[in-house]
Design goal:
By secondary structure, the protein is α/β, with parallel strands linked by helices. Helices cover about 35% and strands about 25% of the residues. The radius of gyration is 20 Å and the shape is globular. This is NAD(P)-dependent oxidoreductase.
């Protein structure tokens, strides 16, 4: 994979660190609107090409993949432009602002036999795969609970009257999109599409959710997902069944350790040796690309579409609307 990046935030730095661990993959170009924001990344990772014109970058024939890590509201535009120019795409979570945007990207990728991935890391973690096996031992399920809360330094700016991207409806921000999306993926990759969904949020004066509770009802159990950027918590995942429960330590986003309590037996599982968990998702994408496994790629893509549909439904039920909703 010869990759170019869009964006200059911390997640791009984290992504490039992980990319260095993937055999046969490399970053050949970085894009930012200003050269001075791209140059530190280019220098750190010894990347030769810096682009400040996106049209020029997507026309570069040496680039196979484009990693989109721009503000959420720009995911669709940047991914669409890359696909239009025959590039494969890795797009940061949340995949798009709306299901309509996701559908358009998926159709374009499939029409042109291009690969398109949502960079949602937790569903590719080894410990998450262990959860998928252990959950079969719990018997009839009753509850799933996830809490991923992390006080954001940008929240202080919001309280001071500023409007940072992550808390700005115009940029498709908010706690559900930025942080609770991990919990949503944690649940849906295990159990599929819920029968019903609701979202109750703490909403700032600008109309964005700073924290909230997402509830999904399945035929036999209830899943509750808490995500907060305005407060801290002990982060965890819990899956409760009639025969016991599973405790995912430190949150559904990292699945740092899995502890099962089944029939009075306690088992601790940790198969993750990498501190940068993006390595695991990139290894999956690299394998799919190298083996030309389009069926697996599109299986993941169809799953991402189902998540975005639930995400949008929950967001609107919580009273959070984006400019993209009007398109």
């Amino acid at each position: 994979m010869k990759i170019a990046t869009i964006g200059s935030g911390f997640i791009v730095d984290w992504f490039l660190t992980a990319l260095n661990e993937i055999e046969g993959a490399s970053c050949v170009a970085v894009y930012s609107r200003k050269e001075e924001t791209a140059k530190p990344l280019a220098d750190k990772y010894q990347i030769d090409k810096i682009y400040t014109d996106l049209d020029q970058m997507v026309a570069d024939s040496s680039i196979e993949f484009i990693y989109v890590a721009s503000p959420n509201s720009l995911h669709f535009e940047h991914a669409f432009q890359a696909l239009k120019h025959g590039k494969h795409v890795i797009c940061e979570k949340p995949f798009t602002s709306t299901a309509k945007e996701a559908k358009a990207l998926i159709e374009l990728a499939k029409q042109n036999q291009l690969m398109l991935f949502e960079a949602i890391s937790n569903i590719h973690l080894p410990n998450y795969q262990a959860v998928k096996e252990e959950v079969k031992k719990l018997g009839k399920l009753k509850f799933v609970q996830c809490n991923y809360s992390q006080y954001s330094s940008r929240y202080n700016k919001l309280l001071d009257g500023e409007n940072p991207n992550v808390f700005n409806p115009a940029f498709s921000g908010g706690a559900l999109a930025d942080i609770n999306i991990y919990n949503l993926h944690f649940v849906m990759n295990l159990f599929g599409v819920p029968d019903s969904v609701s979202y109750t949020a703490n909403i700032h004066g600008n109309g964005i959710d700073t924290s909230g509770v997402l509830v999904m009802k399945y035929p036999d159990f209830i899943a509750e997902c808490v995500g907060a950027k305005d407060s801290n918590s002990m982060n965890f995942g819990l899956i409760q069944g009639e025969k016991g429960y599973i405790h995912v330590k430190d949150g559904a986003n990292v699945c740092k350790q899995v502890i099962t309590y089944i029939n009075d037996e306690v088992t601790e599982i940790n198969s993750q040796t990498k501190s940068n968990w993006l390595i695991y998702e990139l290894a999956v994408f690299n394998d799919i690309f190298n083996s030309s496994n389009f069926s697996k790629c599109y299986e993941l893509l169809d799953y991402s579409y189902e998540v975005i549909k639930v995400f949008e439904q929950a967001r609107k039920k919580g009273g959070i609307y984006y400019p993209a909703d009007q398109k």
